[in-house]
Specification:
By secondary structure, the chain is mainly beta. The chain folds into two domains: 127 residues, Jelly Rolls; 80 residues, Elongation Factor Tu (Ef-tu), domain 3, CATH 2.40.30.20. The chain has a seven-stranded antiparallel beta sheet, with no helix packed on it. Strand 6 and strand 7 form a beta hairpin. It is globular. The chain starts with 10 loop residues before the first strand and ends with a strand.
Length: 222
């Protein structure tokens, strides 16, 4: 029997860099999105490994991980563009309002894929959002992917806290701060693997204004 995580689709990796101080434990303030579950309704995603590492100097502090509720979207009929504005048309009423945040996954070209970007509602079946750059084409009808949304102020709950140790001068002999948790490590089995419902996300925050990276290994189970 395999000891590795098994998925019915390709495993995937979530990555994010963050450095904005957030001293709160209530899920408000600056949270960076490290991993968003599949946008497919009635499906779930599994997280097996989370790595948190500093990108430089650290003082004694705390990293916090939060689970944020999300909603899988309706089936996408088309996505078109005008410069960096993407227009999404859904097969049924999307039920969203202007200011809600959208995460778009698995669309080609890749420019259409965004994380936690505010939308503007145009009609009951149409909304727009801003991309990071201009795509060359409308989204391929064979690869329209899916989207999930959160309210403008998401509902986030504290999941885990990780102590950060002071590393004032990283060097060849003094490595930067790093923490790894995995479903294969005995001390982490109370936390991992984690199953996230469709549209939900894992988010991270740093107590002090210092640079960190989060790398999350997971995949869609359905």
């Amino acid at each position: 029997m395999s000891t590795q995580a098994q998925y019915t689709t390709n495993a995937r990796v979530g990555k994010v860099s963050f450095n904005t101080a957030n001293t709160g434990r209530d899920g408000t303030g600056a949270l960076a999105v490290a991993f968003t579950a599949t946008p497919t309704k009635r499906a779930v995603s599994r997280i097996d490994r989370v790595v948190l590492e500093a990108s430089g100097v650290t003082t004694a502090g705390m990293l916090r991980l939060f689970i944020t509720k999300g909603t899988p979207g309706e089936v996408i009929s088309s996505i078109t563009f005008a410069t960096t504005t993407a227009t999404v048309t859904t097969s049924q009423a999307h039920g969203r309002k202007t200011g809600d945040k959208v995460t778009v996954q698995n669309v080609l070209p890749d420019e259409y894929n965004v994380v936690d970007v505010a939308i503007t509602v145009v009609s009951p079946t149409t909304f727009t959002y801003t991309m990071g750059s201009t795509p060359q084409n409308n989204a391929l009808t064979s690869d329209l992917g899916g989207y999930s949304t959160t309210p403008a102020t998401p509902d986030s709950q504290l999941w885990r806290e990780v102590d950060v140790t002071a590393v004032p001068t990283p060097s060849a002999t003094q490595k930067v701060f790093a923490n790894s948790m995995a479903s294969t490590q005995g001390q982490d089995t109370a936390y991992l693997p984690m199953l996230l419902p469709a549209g939900w996300s894992l988010r991270v925050a740093t107590h002090n204004a210092e640079g960190f990276n989060a790398i999350v290994n997971g995949g869609d189970t359905a």
